Amino acid sequence: MMWEEYERGGEEVKNFIIPLRDNDLLEENDDFYTVDVRPSLEEVISEVFAFKREVEDGQWQRIVTHFGYFFFTLKRISEGEPWRLRVQLISALITGLNGAVDSIEELLPVLMGDAEEATSTENVRERQTHARAFQMYVYLLCRLSDLFETEAVNKQKSAAYSGVKRCRKALLENEDAEFVDRWIVDRQEILTVMQRALSLSVTDAEGKKRHAAIKYLWEPAIICPNFMRVVKDLAYKLLENPELGKLNGREWLRMIFNYLRIICINFDEFPKVGSKLIGLMKRLDYLSVQSQTQSPFVDAIEAASVKDDMDPLFKSMLDSFARLTASDFSKSDVSARPFALFIMSLAEKKPRLLNRHIVNIVFCLSNDKKEFYVSKQLNDDEKMVEEEDRVEDFTKQLKAIDSKISYCQEALMFSLEMEKCLSSALRSVMTGQANELAESIHLIVEARKFAIRGSEKAVRELFRVVWRRDNAIRETVVKSGKDLFISANQDPNVATRKTAENLIRIVLGVCEEDRISLEQVICLMARENMLTIELLDAFSSVVFSTQGALRIAALRLFSIICRANKEFMRERFEFFVEMSRREAFFDGDDGTLAAEYFNAVSMLGGLPNAKDLSTLSEIPFRLPQTHRIIRCIETLLIENVSNKNYEWLCVMEKAINAIYYAAARPSRSVRRIASSIISQAKNALASFWLSKQHIDAVACATFKDTDDETELDPKVEELLTAEERWQEERNDVERISEMEVDDNREETKQLDEEDLTQMQHVLVKALEADAEQRFELWELIAERVCAFTGQVALKTLIHVDISFLAEMKRKNELVHAMRQAASLNGDVAKRGKPRDAEEYPEDREPTKLEIESIERTGFFEASEEDVEDPLGLTGFSDDERIAQRANRICEVGVFRRRKLLSRLTPFLLFIVRSKKTICTERLRSAAALALSKVMLLSMRVCMRMMPIFVHFLTHSPSAECRSNLMIAAGDLCFRFPNVVEKYSYHLYERIRDKDAYVRETCVIVLAHLILNDMVRIRGTVGDIARCIVDANVNIANLAKFFFAELSKKGNIIYNLMPDVVSRLSSNQEVAIDDFREIMKLLLSFIKKDKQADSLLEKLCQRMYCTEDSTGKVDERLAECLSYCISRLPLSEKSLRTMTELLPSYAYLLYLDTVFTNLSTAITHFRKANAFRNTQLKAELDDFLEKLTRIHIEKVEEESVVNHGLLYRKKARKLQTKVKSSKN
């Protein structure tokens, strides 16, 4: 945390307010910062140089400590002014202010971002610290600048006077010249850093860019008036320098007005600045000299203006000019010439502006074209009435402005209070019950309608509640979605357009974490018929009329709404066909649009529900292989497999889903895609090896001199021929343009061997760079081939286990219906056909599956069980037979010779087993993950590949790969528990992984497997217990949740407790404090007296074995066991057990920790249970007294023994010395 306090009577630094007068800081004040030190000059000098060293080290916040000393540099503290000291101080202040502005620039996005984060205690302290230091810097720099500017002007005037008196060119003394030159540099740096601070702009949480962001250092964000006064006074003081009237001072004048421009625009100070400038024009001498032909102010303002943004300043100056009277020019020191030059320059620079406000100067113009005077009085009654009306209108405008300001202030306060309430409301939504949520949800919804800062994020987090099991809560969330998104406009067209805009806006702004919850809410709204058909038409028009993010959002919303009703979606099937028909629809797409399109196509089919028999009779939605949509999916995957900038992996996953859910023959589509991408991988690899051969040939080439022409090395010539052949096969032959050669051209000079060698090196480097690019391309395609193989294997498993089973069940139901129809139909022609069976033409050719079903061949070939039991008396049901066939497909059919997965699996094995020099770790990780998905298909394959899988899980250097393989291990354990059981040790071993992300994944997977009884609870569950004290908070919370859920499964924790205590107490890596925290949690789940008594007896007996064969006591083990006893819920039986087994652990009572733990347990039990039972109280007192007595005796015995051992040791040393002296 940033330093923000210093020792000052033990109190925290108070808030700093810029005073009206300097002496106000010397008066005591309980609320604000005051100066309470009276230092000497030596102390001030010491503090200045100390502060200079600190700001050079980046400790700009130390200004708070030194401010009281620096304050006295503004005053006269000794004979003569300490200008050298002030020069050092102002340099340090400039450096410190630059550091403060850098830190403020990093802090402002946090303060204007998330409301909950901005109002946290730490950020509030940061805001106060920055505001305090920033104001101190500004105050000191502005006040010191006033002193320096006055001194510099005086030195310039004195030098000019002395020069005139000597009748020669005025020259400053060396010291004064250095002072003035140094100040010219310093004042430019001061103005630059002040301008930078005042022009800060930040983008808030809603994406709006906020100017004048420095005001957010104050709470509320209203800038202090005194702050604005001192920053403006700095500019006004700099404008008084007479050097600004000279030609070399014009650049500095422009810088001052650039500074004033930031103040006027960002803080709306045009009226005040304009009035002040008119006042300065009356008393600045350099504006009225005869050499001036243009107004310097007008020129400087025009130079600082950007797109006429300083015109309001001219207007305010003209308004102030109109309020001048004749008395303003009655004094002898006030000249009318600056005003005449102002009007003339303005007429030349801004004629239209002056023409619009001519009324402000008409009454004071005279016949003289060069000068004007203000002498005309408003004596006419009619003009007086007009003036009164104007004043009255102006007063009304002021009242309206004041009313608007009051309204805005109240709205701001309301917004701030609402912003503070959002976090509490959201917290109550996440943890409350259904009857408590309605008001909180309504508050968040209304806050979003009023665009309260942080409300959009609160709405997105609110939708996470939709996953709770309470139906009432879900209904409340869906209603809130209706209030937020659905327009209540009476015009249906307007309402549809506004609703579409609201939904598109929320989808565009949602993050990936909240996207699923938002889509679920919109889907539930569609199921409740809250979204109309017209809304789908609106989304359709957006999809075809826009591009980029809007098109993707509209397509996503279209598919979400249609997901609520698949039949409704299939009725608009032409919408998806039209997208695939348009040629340029996917042009310029990085894969996001294609992925969304494929996801929508997959929803047309989907997975059947095998448990719902009513849906089995429905014919599944399948597209033929030649359909345009299927061809579009295949084309996009094949054409972009080598595109580095294409999100191919995401697109591939969605595409495979669409193929397996919607295609009639998914295996053919997958085979066609695989054939193309593997061909591209082969071509890329062949191109790489060819380039390597080129490199070797060029590197080994030799150069021979010939009389007429240079001969090529045979190897190079051969490779060039091969390259040409290769280019012809790839249809990439480049035509070489013929070069016209002049007949009279001079003979080409021969190249020497050194030049040829140098050219050879250059060519080799170019070829190596090209080879590296080709290798990267091959690696990219190979990685995508691996991912494609894994996804195909996974979807094949799902397709066989779900879609195939459901289709076979539908076939059985259809056969059963046909048999019933045959028995019920009297018509012989219709016998054997169900009443709702589809009519087929007689000349229709049966499919392959129908032929195999009729002939009982292929898939329908009778097995041995069917031959032996044709009547089905063995007890196998139809569902069991179908499941056996599906299992046979996965075990044998998928991995038959020349099948796709059987051809790709060796490729995965080769990459996994390859060395790091051949394949990168990223490619090997992708292959390992794909291999784990292939292993899910077959137990036989899983058993063969399991050692490779475990080795890669253990030794992979990629933390992401180890985490993914750990998840895959959980799936393998669910699929083949007996196979994985042999390697369960390697699963538990990942708990001790060095990477926190892998440990977190391991805890999640093991918790799921253990709680669902998929793996046996091994002794290494103690490693999961160690995760309770993991440095990562998420891992610790997951471990605690795991044991909380495990405690609900009978006596598991009680049965594991002895083993856990033994492992943790004997592990030296587990600190005593960590052991205490772990056992405190685990023993809290032992609540039954019987279990506690039994465990207490085991612990007491175990304490008897803490002494080894040599008589040495394991003090760590004794302390751990005694602590476990102290955390058990004791009973009267426990007391008797401890009394009976006292001899078994009495010898350990010399240890203070053991005695403290046991006495603490007895004391707690006495306070909780013996306050009414006097007999039990007496027994406890006797037992506690006995423990105390034994403890004292054992401590004394131990001290005597230690003293004796020490005496023996000294005696042995003495004997050794005597023997050595005799020798």
Automatic annotation (TrEMBL):
Domain Condensin complex subunit 1 N-terminal: 88-248
InterPro entries: ARM-like, ARM-type_fold, CND1/NCAPD3, Cnd1_C, Condensin_cplx_su1_N
Domain Condensin complex subunit 1 C-terminal: residue ranges: 962-1109
Molecular function GO labels: histone binding
A single BP term in Gene Ontology: mitotic chromosome condensation
UniProtKB keywords: Cell cycle, Cell division, DNA condensation, Mitosis, Nucleus
Domain of life of the source: Eukaryota
Gene that this polypeptide is encoded by: NCAPD2
PANTHER family to which the protein is assigned, alphabetical: CONDENSIN, CONDENSIN COMPLEX SUBUNIT 1
One of the record's GO cellular component terms: condensed chromosome, centromeric region
Subcellular location: Nucleus
Name of the protein this chain belongs to: Condensin complex subunit 1
